Amino acid sequence: MTEDVTIYIDGREIKAKAGQSLLRAALDNGVYIPNLCDLRERETPEASCRLCFVELEGVPEPVTSCSTGVEEGMVARTDSWRVRELVAAGFELLMTTHPVDCAACPGNKRCALQEIAKKMKFKLKSGRLPEILRDAPLDLSHPRIGYDSDRCVMCGRCVYVCNEEAGARAIDFIHRGLKMTVGVFGGGPLAESSCISCMRCVEVCPVKAFYEKTKETDV
Ligand code: SF4
Ligand code: SF4
Ligand code: FES
Q1: Which terminus of the chain faces fewer neighbouring Cβ atoms within 10 Å, N or C?
Q2: Domains and CATH numbers, the chain
Q3: How many angstroms separate the Cα of 141 from the Cα of each of 27, 126, 164, 190?
Q4: Which of the ligands is closest to the CA of residue 63?
Q5: Atom 4, ligand 1: which residue's CA is nearest?
Q6: Which atom of ligand 2 lies at the shortest distance from residue 149's CA?
Q7: What is the pLDDT of residues 100-147, one digit of tens each?
Q8: Atom of ligand 3 lying closest to residue 37 CA
Q9: Residue 53 backbone zone (phi > 0: left; psi -120 to 50: alpha; other: beta)
Q10: Structure confidence at residue 177 as a pLDDT band (50, 70, 90)
């Protein structure tokens, strides 16, 4: 049986499982911490979205909670001004590359960005930074899956499930710098890739850049 450890988040006593990340302990106990790249199936966190910051007592700088394991007596703050500023800045920057046309998006109302904005009381677009949209064409080649790389927030979840779980190696990070995105391994449309149609990328994509086609979304 996994041992319990006692931790304190925002003054609340929480029983967490030894070996669990602070992020998962918080979420499992109803404490919201914004996150995009964490995936329960994945043992080693990607820790790339930089949205899950918390402050820890005795630690000078905020840490990412997905890559921090719980320890007996740990004291964490999710609601300090330093954490809020850091998360707000990260979210604002992330949103410069993401089109906000929610009504036309297959992820509308089940999107992690909408959830973060609502729970953290952030605007989806601050209007302070210039947009840098990728403006890439939709990939509608696959019979069941649509892919809109413009919406991708580079969390890496789909790449992990496609490569490590499904073993299909159909998709990966492609291009460099500002043009970096997720695409078909070696280029080309999804229908011509080694995709085995497991649909895991659709399930795990937090913004539905990969989405299941319906009559409403695609012809
Ligand atoms: S549906 Fe295709 S692209 Fe998506 S995870 Fe499965 S094999 Fe990879
Ligand atoms: S397509 Fe979705 S799951 Fe894949 S990296 Fe982009 S946002 Fe993450
Ligand atoms: S969830 Fe921690 S860095 Fe993304």
Answers
A1: N
A2: 4-93 (3.10.20.740), 135-219 (3.30.70.20)
A3: 37, 34, 24, 6
A4: 3
A5: 201
A6: 1
A7: 999 999 999 999 999 999 999 999 988 888 888 888 889 999 999 999
A8: 4
A9: beta
A10: confident
